[in-house]
Design brief:
- With about 450 residues, this protein is an all-alpha fold.
- It is built from 20 helices and 2 strands.
- It has helices at about 20, 25-60, 65-80, 85-95, 95-110, 115-120, 130-145, 145-155, 160-185, 190-215, 225-230, 230-235, 240-245, 250-280, 285-310, 315-340, 345-360, 370-375, 380-405, 410-430; strands at about 1-5, 10.
- Strands 1-2 form a two-stranded antiparallel sheet.
- Helix 4 (about 85-95) crosses helix 5 (about 95-110), helix 5 (about 95-110) runs antiparallel to helix 10 (about 190-215) and helix 16 (about 315-340) packs antiparallel against helix 20.
Amino acid sequence: MVSKDNTGQSKSFLITETKPYIKHWVRSEKILWMGALCWSCMALYMVRMAMPLTIAAAVKEFQWTRTQSGAILSSFFWGYTLTQVLGGYLSDRFGGAIVLLYSTIGWSLLTFWTPKLISFFRGSGLTTHSVMVFTRVLIGAFQGVHFPSVSSITSRHLPEKERTFFFSIVGSGCNLGTLATGYIGSLLLEEVHCKTGTVGITWVIFLHYYVLRRHLNVPVIGIPDNLKSDSVLRSHKATVPWVKLMKQPAFWAMMIGHICETYSWHILLSWLPTYFQETYPTAKAWVYNVLPWLVCVLANVVGGYVAEWCICKGFSVTCVRKSVHMSSQFLKAGFLILAGSMQSFTASVLCLTFAVAVSGFHSSGIMSNPQDVAPRHAGAVFGLMNMAGSILGFVGVYFSSYILATTNNWATVFNVTATVNVIGGLLFGCYGSGQALI
């Protein structure tokens, strides 16, 4: 978009969120962004789950070992951890929408062209394993900026009492994405990647032409001179006081609590299809690929509604965040331990469905906590928190492949994961906070 300054000279601007910087969303904007961000999370997880859901078929096709398949699954998180803090900083500095727009273009196109890349490099001497690892690293790097951007957008445009339910609805898109990919998981590898990549590309078109330009009339680029001195922007550009923040026990409780939840989440996300395929090879795939994530959508929405209702009724944010997180971690640990001892398909599905479902409470707990403890720097703080969680996430995925390769015992994987969840619940319950620290 082109505008003119006081001298009559034309100035070009890039896409930014200058207008929403200085006001909260009205109801229509809130609903529009809730739907748009929920859709974005759905597309994000459709792409993320494309490989875990097809890894068993790919192993047979390309003759990968258990260790190689574990490396491919965990390689996503190598890239994912690299861009978390950068994504949060860019979102806090320039606006989350523009960061989401360009990053989604990257991971959508890479996913869409993944089968073509395999075919193209197969004749060059590179193994399919190497190509998949490199592609998944790049996809992870593009996706790493997503949730810090969403957190930055939410903290900037919503009052504290409205953030919890909003974030829960947006987070439910992750489960819808997993659900959608699970539904088409029986298709060929190429079809899964093409279809999930197309969903991301469609969202980019919607965000760019409908949300940013047509509906909200967001200007295209830069910050006009008359807003550069605005106190809101000056405070928002301020450097994050990391030293002060890291001296707070509540910050480390939030970090460790999120790390523990992310560890278990990524193991369930990456290994659940393989567990059922190996343990119950004759079972119907749509049951275990769909049911856990369908129930998790409901848990996300109900958890967010109850948490926000409690805050509105006068319960402290600290009390609500602690209660939600501890309930999630302890219940998940119990269901995982039970799953390790189950001998029937029905019992295993029920236990792991509930383990996945209570993960949905996380959106109302620690996932919303950076907006509480650092409202002006939520994107950067969330990025650091999610980076740490992602590191343990891919370590957990790879470590689980090592356990399976040496013991071939799924109960050990579940028991170790349950122990991690208990530790995270206890630490946040003792030291967590819902008050602003910086």
